[in-house]
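Recap quiz, item 2
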Amino acid sequence: MPVPVPVSFLLLLILFSVSLIALLFVRPGVTVARSGKIMAFLVLFFLPLLCAWIGVSSELERSKSTAFCLSCHIMEPYGKSLHVDDPSYLAAAHFQNHRVPADEACYTCHTNYTMFGTAASKLRGLRHVYVYYFTTPPPPEKIKLYDPFNNRECLHCHEGARSFEQGAVHNSDPDLLPAIKANKKSCLSSGCHEVVHNVGTLNNVKFWNGGT
Amino acid sequence: MTLSPSPFERRLQISGVLIILGLLVEALCLAWRGPLAFLVFLGLGGLLLFAGIVVYLYSLVSIPHPRE
């Protein structure tokens, strides 16, 4: 896991780089000397790459945050659904009981747990931007996933957990657990955990405002 | 502030301007913190930084250096 770099440090590094580049711009003759050539290499190659690398990794980490996802107006009801005071609401139950990290709640369930899952998530994010800015986005209650939710994302945490493996309902039929694990029977759309965000019903529910 | 008459130094100055612009875009995007900021950061900032670095590297191989 990358170590988060404070934004203030990155801004200072950018300021430092800009100052040195400005010095080089005003006095380009310093590159005649060997020390000037080394300085030019540092400020025109090494420091910009360092700033870009730190910036990209910092922005990528930030794009996983719940606040980042909910900063789009259209996602506000989905953020609200995390506070529904009803354990049958799957997203709310996970969020409120810290089954997912509260500060990365959206990303934890909606990323792909595959080799290039993070990259796939970012590409999906680009698609969100396209839909939001260049088409007419549907109202929040009509938003659908691009692809059906894969059980793999649930099993990333639940597989092997006693409550899942030995759950009475999961073992009511000997074929059920293998079907869930093979993604042949969806956790969400098979009548078991169907209430997830259900943002169309938020006017008729109570909210829990505790926790973080 | 004017560009240097020396082709090598002039390219360094152009490279510097592009990189400064790229870094300023990056700084603005860090302060902006909206979802679009990341795209502007990658699209515009990344392009400016990349162009600046390419101009610098190109200047190293394309123009004879002034001797020490």
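Chain B touches chain A through 40 residues (CB under 8 Å).
Residues 15-62 of chain B form one domain.
End of item.
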